[in-house]
Amino acid sequence: MSCLDGTSAHGGDFEVFSRNEMIDVMVRVRATQFLQRATFGPTQDEIDAMTMRMRQIGVTAAAEEWIDDQFAMEPTSHVATARAMMAADGWAENEDGVNITRYRDHAWWHIAITAPDQLKQRIAWALIQICVISNQGAGFNNRGLDNNQNADWLGLSNYYDMLLENSDDTYREVLGDVTYSPVMGTYLSHLRNKKGDPSKGVFPDENYAREIMQLFSIGLYEMDSDGQLKVDAEGNDIPTYDNETIKAFARLFTGLTFAGSRTITNGRRDLHNPMMMFDGSHDQDPKTLLNGVTLPANPNGVADINAGLDNLYAHPNVAPFISRLLIQRLVRSNPSRAYLGRVAAVFNDNGQGVKGDMKAVIKAILLDRECWNSIRVSRSRRPVRIIVRPTGTERSRLAEPVVMYAGFLRRFSSPEPDGWYRLPALDYNWVQAPYRSPSVFNFYLPDFQPAGPITAYQASSRIPNGSIYAPEFQLFDAVVANRMANRIRGDVADANADYTAVNNEKAGRHDVDLPMDFSVEETLGEDPVGLAKHLDMTLCAGTMTNEFREALVDALQQETNVEQRTRGAILSVLMSPAGMIVE
C-alpha cells in the first residue's frame, strides 16, 4: 500500500530461516509483481515457474525471456473462440432467440482466463482502451450475415482480434488498421464520408478526424518526450492542432465504405473486412495537415490517406502520448518523466531505426528499472527477515475491475465440465466490461482525479506537470465497491462462481457454475500466520502491511472452522488495499 504524501508505506516483514528461503521470498516478490502486470493475473503455477527461472538466470533476464516467448505465440482469436463456443452449444452465429451476441462476452472471458498468450491479450485490452469502440455503435448487435456469411455482431470481436494481431506490429500499423476498420468507420462515422460541396453547404464528417488526433495519437497539447507540457511565451499550453487541422483531416478521411460495395452509399454491410475506397467520393484537393505540411492533390484516395497518417505519425507527441497510456494500463498511473522519456525514446527508435515497434515498447515498459522500484525488497539480520516496502502513491495504480476479477478466476476457478468459461458481460457488477465503453473516451480518463486529497497533492519533481492521477477511480464509486465486494464474497463463500448465461424459451436456462479450488489455502488453514503470508505473497506481491497482516491473523484465530477461516482470509485480502492496489 502507498501513502498520499509520496513516502513509503509500511509494508510487510517475512521471517526466514535459511539462505534458500531468503532468496526465494525476495525473488517471488519480483515474479508476482511482474506477472501481475503482464497477465490477467498470475496463477500459482505461473508464479512458481517464474520464480524458479528468475533464480536460475536473474530477474530481468527471466522476465525478458518470458516476454520473448509470449510474443512468439500465436494469438488466441476471439472470433474463432466465439464460434467454437456456439458450435459446442449447437447454435449458428445468426441464430434467433438465444441471445447469440452473448458469445462475444463468453469468448472474451474464456480467453482472458485460459489463453496462453497472456501478454498479447493484455496489450490488446490496453489498445482497445486507446482506440475505443463500443457495442453502442449502429448495428453492432445485429444477427445479420454479410456476403461472406459473417455475422455483424462478431465485427466487434474481429476488431479486437485486429488489435491483438497489432500487439507485435508497429503503432503506425495500429493507426492504419483502425482507420480502415469498418467497425471504427461506423463508430466514428467516417464510413461513407463523402467529399464536401461547400456550394451546397455539404462538408465532410469531422468525428474521426478529431478523435484520431485527440485520443489515438497526439493528444490536445504539445509535450516534450518526457511528458512535460510545452508552453508559449505567455506560459500557455500549446495546442497540437486547431479547427482548420480538423477540417483538413476530415477531408482526408473521405471516400471509404464497406468492402464489396457498388458505390460509396450502395453496398451490403461488412464489419469484418477493411473498408474500400471510392476515389470519386474522396476529396482529392491539397490538404494542409500538422506542422504546416501540405499534401499535394492526389486522385488516389488510399495513397492520400496513408500520406496523411504518416504526417500524423511523424508528430513528436505520438511517442510520449501513447507510451504514457500504455504505461498507465500495464504498470502505473503516474510514470515519472525519466521513465516516460526512456520508453518514448524506444518508441521513436527501437535501435534499428523503427518507430513504434510494439515489441520493443512493451519490453521497455515492463523491464524498465522503475517497474521494479515501486516495491523495495531488503534484508535484515537481526532478526533475519525480508522487508518488503511499497515506495509510494506515485508508483502504483488501482487494479481495473475486469482485470482484478479475471485474475481471481485465473487463480482459483475451474471451467464448466465441457471446458468453457461462459461468463456474461458482468457490467452490472462494476460498470466496466469488454465492448461496453460508455463513449470513445473509454471507461475513465487518463487525467482523472477523484475528489479528496489527491487534488491538492504536490507531486514530486519526478512527475510531469506537477499533478498525479488515478484513472481507475473514476469507476470505483461506492456503488461499484459494494457490488464488487458482494460478487466476490458470494464466489468465495460458496466456493463457486455462478451466473446465468441465458434464460429464454428457445435456449432454456443455462446456469453457469465455476467451482473454486481453495485446497492449497485450506492446507494452510490450521496455521493463520502461514496462510496470511501465503496470501500476501500470492495476491499482493508481499505488500501487505504488518499491521493488516497481524489484524488478519487475529481475526482468523477467532474462527475455529478451517474452511470458513480460509475463505474469510481470501475475501479479506482480495478486498483490501494491498489486494486492489498494484505496486
Please write out the topology.
Layout: E1 12-15, H1 19-38, H2 44-57, H3 59-71, H4 78-89, H5 102-114, H6 118-127, H7 155-166, H8 171-180, H9 182-187, H10 207-214, H11 243-252, E2 256-257, E3 276-277, E4 287-288, E5 294-295, H12 301-313, H13 318-330, H14 337-348, H15 358-367, H16 369-372, E6 375-381, E7 384-390, E8 397-398, H17 401-412, H18 427-430, H19 478-494, E9 496-504, E10 508-515, H20 519-523, H21 528-540, H22 546-558, H23 562-574, H24 577-580, E11 581-582
Antiparallel strand pairs: 1-7, 2-3, 4-5, 6-7, 8-11, 9-10
Helix pairs in contact: 1-2, 1-21, 2-3, 3-15, 4-5, 5-17, 6-7, 6-13, 7-8, 10-11, 13-14, 13-15, 14-15, 19-23, 21-22, 21-23
Overall mean pLDDT score? 96
Q: How many DSSP H or I helices?
A: 24
The shape is globular
Strand content: 5-15%
Distance between the termini: 8 Å
pLDDT below 50 for ≥5 consecutive residues: which ranges?
none
- Biggest β-sheet: count, sense, barrel? 3 strands, antiparallel
Query: What Rg is obtained from the alpha carbons, in whole angstroms?
Result: 25 Å
Strand segment tally: 11
Structural class: mainly alpha
Helix content: 40-55%
Strands in their spatial order, largest beta sheet: 1-7-6
